[in-house]
Amino acid sequence: MILTFTAVLGLLLVLVRPLQRNPFFILHFALVVGAAYLTETYCFKLPPFQYKTFLLLIVYHLVSINAVTFLAYGLDKRAAKRGDWRVSEARLHTLELLGGWIFAYLAQKFFHHKTKKKSYQTMFWLMLVFQISLIYFILNYLGFLH
Hints:
mainly alpha, single chain, 146 residues, 0% strand, 6 helices, 80% helix
């Protein structure tokens, strides 16, 4: 399981250059691999690169990326109040695009952050529509929506 999680996220890290400079993705990577280690050590083992292993990776990925996205919004809001160095919008959008849009939306409401900036909200909602459309087409292609 650790091998699968490390290979998939590591490949993503190598292939997508902006992720290499995104400390929130690095944190996400560490959280997912750490969760795989704890699961494998204390709960159960799954063979590498099997169907169930990838399903568990998706679950861990979504939980972790949403938590990290919420953290990124909180840190950016705190930096905005203090006048410190901010989290770039590109980094926030990257986290949303990787699946963190659920907690990004909640963080916007909770922290009252990025809610009035129209260009940011436009990009946020376009990415959300894109992701939902992509999920729909994948599920339709796999025959789950017939």
